[in-house]
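User: Can you predict the 3D structure of enoyl-CoA hydratase? Sequence below.
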Amino acid sequence: MIYDGKAIKVKEIEGGIAQLNFDLEGESVNKFNRLTIEELGEAAGKLKDAKNIKGLVVTSSKDSFIVGADITEFTDLFAGPEEDLVANNLKANDVFNTIEDLPFPTVTAINGMALGGGFEMCLSTDYRVADNKAKVGLPEVKLGIFPGFGGTVRLSRLIGADYAIEWISGGSENRADKALNEGAVDSVVEADKLVEAAVAIINEANAGKLDYKARREEKQGKLKLNAMESMMVFETAKGFVAGKAGKNYPSPVESIKVMQKHAGLTRDKAIEVEAKGFAKMAKTNTAACLVGLFLNDQELKKKSKQWEKEANPVNLSAVLGAGIMGGGVAFQSALKGTPILMKDINQDGIDLGLSEAKKLLTKRIDKGKMKPDQMADVLNNITPTLNYGDFGNVDIVVEAVVENPKVKDAVLRETEDHIGENAILTSNTSTISIDTLAKNLKRPENFCGMHFFNPVHMMPLVEVIRGEKTSDRAVATTVAYAKAMGKTPIVVNNCPGFLVNRILFPYFGGFLHLIRDGADFQHVDKVMEKFGWPMGPAYLQDVVGMDTSKHAGDVMAEGFPDRMSHDSKTAIDVMFEKERLGQKSGKGFYQYELDKKGKQKKVVDEETYELLKPVVQQQNEFTDDEIIERMMVPLCLETVRCLEDGIVDTPTEADMGLVYGIGFPPFRGGALRYIDDLGVEEFVRIADKYADLGALYHPTDKLREMAKNGETFFG
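Assistant: Sure. Here are the predicted structure tokens for enoyl-CoA hydratase:
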């Protein structure tokens, strides 16, 4: 044994060839934490001094090679001074450089995923062999940073600036065949042939058939672009990527700037440029929020795993109502491998549900995400039916009929009579109380809410709503089923609107008050989109539908009359009365036309301003900051109330519900993180400016106490 550590072991395997194997003790995956980097440095030193070693094969004993850096170490690291970040990266790079400079040919055998620092490890060896199911990439921009272990330097010199810019600024995970075609790996083989293929490359290099030293010099040298070529490549890319990423996500463009700066430098100087650029990005609030979201997501996964331990197995599911929503649920379940019965009361509904599933599958084929023959497999997982014939065999049912308590009550009671005593019954309601729906059920302990967001295939969140009588087993099974469908479940307690809609409607309330006080809805939309929302509140109302908003708004007003009821007619009331329901009717705040691709696009409709005149009580000009404050304060305060009322257990779940459920700007981290970033004391001061607008803007006593004590939600 050449080296024996807790994360890395090195031994000689055959003919003077050494094998460096990653196998981090106590972990299901390999990742670059402090221990692993330290041991890699020690192992590299042993290899450098070893006698009679003719080559090195780098492998992994886990299902994936290395999934990246240990993000849990980022928060402490990023909180330190910028110069310490630079020094930390340069120290890590010394280890990677030692691997790259070993006095014999080196090959990485990539199994599964090699991402971030894991792929940078691969880049430090002379050659790379991947199994045919491997994925490689540098996804650091998704955390608000970019590669810091030499990735921008080595990849740009290995595959060229154009491809490197695409990989790094896009943060993509690339399949083995793409990596091979673009030069990032040298061979793709079956998983069981990896080591054999790597050894063969080393033997060819030692026999002089492959010039590994020339390959190494290419990676360590300057980028092969003249001044004009360099300017064309980088300047064009910066403009394109800036337009795509937006100003709120600076790291994709910064990664290109860094590659441009070090293009004319050799490896060691280029790595210094990368380290300084990395540290600059790591100190941004965007990076702090995106890393926070990643850690929050990991926390949600841990919670889900705990629930899954108590879950019943789900081998067959069912959905009631085969419309757009029901079809979406059926598609998602079938796509992820859980067979599902799709029931409706008439054939037209069945046809609509199947049509929705086929449409979504066709899109996947068109985008290259699925092969045509796989479409039939998914459709075969959906069994349409007009009766309850096979419902005795289902493990869980999702009711997705019209949002009407009487209809839902009748459907749920009827369904309960046709399913087994242990089957879980759920309702995809967005507003109706779970306790109300459970009143007439024989087994309320087997009933809970399972609220999907539209469109089902795109929105990651599922709210699992616990009623007063809901059992842990019902919650656990629903959580497990949501996970099996590829969704992120958050368990919430029952209240009007549950978590997401309860928080969303105060935001809409802020919007309606702005319209009442004379704000231009288009200006409000532009300001909030600039703030980071995927669409402004007027546009969002059009997408949701005025009928849906009015119904949900009435439920919220009944549940929270002090802050969610309105003293006079609102803009939503006007739109609803005029049957301007939004996109579904072709007109709402905006008018909708089909573009060349057949997609709806919004255009300005001057008639809207005439229609709104009766509800405009004042004429005011609002600054952008005033609009942001009047929109965000109600949303943030309601998030605080949900936490204080125990609707969710933790700030993590509250913030992730908003990011995953309604597109809260990820680079801002969530409503409670946003309060923390402003400072709780400052947020309370801003809210108090608008105290005369009513209870929507009144901080809770506990929040005032937090402000007084200098406390935060996330520490």
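The two ends are 45 Å apart (CA to CA). The chain has 31 helices and 20 strands.
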